[in-house]
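Same chain as my last thread, 242 residues:
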Amino acid sequence: MRVALLVTCLADLMRPGVAFAALRLLEHGGCEVEVPETQTCCGQPAYNSGDRPAAIALAKKALAEFEGYDYVVAPSGSCAGMVRVHYPDLFRDDPPLLKRFEALASRMYELTDFLANVLRLDSVPGDFSGTLTYHDSCSGLRELGVKAQPRALLSLLPGARLLEMEEAEACCGFGGTFSLKFGEVSAQLADNKCANACATGADAIVGGDLGCLLNIEGRLRRRGDLRTRVLHIAELLAGRSG
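reply #2:
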């Protein structure tokens, strides 16, 4: 099957290793993976800020880039949620385009959902050994139902032991532009998340959305924690967490 990888802005700019790890996992599952070179932002920041014209322009661009593939996969629940849930909303008054966007949405997957439910992986290349705790990101959990999938994949790592934190499903405080508009609230949510994660004593905090992970790691370091690692699940599963 031909699969397009939606790299995401944050992976491209902040941690490209996440995209390479996702690529390795998709190829491990037997996919023919392509990365459209002209891809940019999915339009979520514009959409969340109320700039519908910019969001519509970026959605049309993405449609042209990704429409021809069997599946589109992103290592991010928020970007996948934008395509699957919010693109159709943008074009609800344009029936011809809405039909095309609905077709694209039906082929759009968050990475762990695709690995677990489409490819049905029974092995992964990673060899992580240690304890970890998992943070459930808001968009992946609430828009796409991503909860059991990452945990099932983590169970394929024989040396890893999952320690569930309190309030694993609570927001980390990032929320894209929310963290800029409501800094004090965001910081308190991040402090709560860090405290709950660290209370498990886990070696690493793992998640599926890089925005959340950058927010959590930044807060951890400001709190003086230089020990706890913060990893994207793709890095862990692909054996690229070094």
